[in-house]
Amino acid sequence: LGIGSRMLENREEELTTVRVQDPRVQNEGSWNSYVDYKIFLHTNSKAFTAKTSCVRRRYREFVWLRRQLQKNAGLVPVPELPGKSTFFVGSTDEFIEKRRQGLQQFLEKVVQNVVLLSDSRLHLFLQSQLSVPDIEACVQGQGTQTVTEAILHYAMSNCGWVQ
The PX domain covers which part of the protein (predicted)? Predict the structure, then answer.
């Protein structure tokens, strides 16, 4: 092996795996039922504070995230989310699975975009269980913790692994 190839071996490639899995219906049977999804993130990227995390988010939080990314990304196009169901033909399970796939594709595209990756809302969305208003407060410096502290606090609490 020459020096050049040895240097390449040492240069670790940055990889980020994001999976949307385990859809769960919450408040089933009530008028305010909704589905949330487990978002599992594993990375060696320096862009992320925690190297692994696991949070649960619902569709409406994805909608909020996309809106925020769009606002802050300027001319960078933000990937589309799967649509809301108005007239869905087929089973609920089929719909939930299609949505899960769409949410996963959305996040896969987002984490590969350097501009979107610089948005701290994205990091809090993926690596803390803060609510949307708490994410906003944290990003604007009105929370009790910095963005990094909130992510590390969640990572240290092991919440991501209890679910």
Answer: 15-132
The answer to whether residues 154 and 128 touch, using CB atoms and an 8 Å cutoff, is yes
Q: What is the maximum span of the chain, computed from C-alpha positions, in angstroms?
A: 66
Please tell me the pTM assigned to this model: 0.84
- pLDDT interval class at 1 (50, 70, 90): very low
Domain 16-161 has CATH 3.40.50.720: no
Sign of CA dihedral 105, 86, 68, 141: negative
Q: Characterise 42 by phi-psi region: left (phi > 0), alpha (psi -120 to 50), beta (else).
A: beta
* Strand, helix or coil for residue 12: coil
Distance between CA atoms of 134 and 141, rounded to whole angstroms? 10
pLDDT for res 47: 87
